[in-house]
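Incident review: delayed structure delivery

Summary: a single-chain prediction request sat in the queue longer than the usual turnaround. Root cause was a stuck worker, restarted by the on-call engineer. No data loss occurred. The affected request and its eventual output are reproduced below so the record is complete for anyone auditing the incident later.

Affected input:
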Amino acid sequence: MNLRHLRSFIAVAEELHFGRAARRLHVGQSPLSRTIRRLETDLGVVLLDRTPHGVFLTAAGQVFLLDAQRVLQTLEQAQTNVQTAAAGYRNTLRVALSSHIGKSRLPALLALCRKEVPEVAIRLFETPKAELVLGLGTGLYDLGLTLDDGGDAGLIATSLWEDPVVVALPTRHPLLAFKEIPLREVFSYPLVLCDSKDCNVCTQQRERLFRSVEAQPIAVEYVTSHSLMLTLVAAGYGVGFSSAGHLANCQHFDVVARPLADQTALMTTYLLRRDGEMTESLRQFVNRAQRVGRLHTADERSV
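Output delivered after worker restart:
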């Protein structure tokens, strides 16, 4: 078993299609199939179920996929670390970003780090929440930024900043008549909502909002990404929910944000790290993140 075998398996496991995986790897489909068979022989297990209806991961394949992805991530980080050291950086912080966090404060935080500690390199990785937590536990990442305060054994969560929930509207929508929109008025229109499987925290916040109003919302679409939600809103499919921090970095000229009349609806960004003594670089990063959060909060309240 070698790295080529791992990359081949990961491609097939993620595509669940030998043809697409072969095109992704720029190899022939037959050689790719032989590579997977050789890997299964070496491991002594079946990783993929090949059926007339498609390719599916076995239970063993699901477990091996996670390990194979971690092996390649570790290798890539080792290559990055040695290149970073050769470039003169004293240390590297590996920061995992949950894909649903608002990133409006991130540029200010990174700029502050570059200004105050230019000798410390910061590597960013976008990852689903489950992989973020797993990566923190195995030492793949030094810290993570997420909307979830954790509750995971061995991890410590620090609140950094809060963003109000806003309504995303297409241009020329009737709700634009409101400077602050009552939630009951939002329920008069079709909604484009995030799929609960892709953002559990967003779903929990949404359900808390919905329980505050005795009305039944009408969802016309469930989407797997924030960008797709904005696209459907811009096209007039319905209205959506986001956060001020998330929309701040999204240049979508056909979507307008309006705050909710209920300003208690907030999305909190947390910093997650492993329990135990922090390195000096990590401690300073946490302090800078909290400073940026306080500064932006003060600026927003002064507007």
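Verification: The chain has a mean pLDDT of 83.
Action items: add queue-age alerting; document worker restart procedure.
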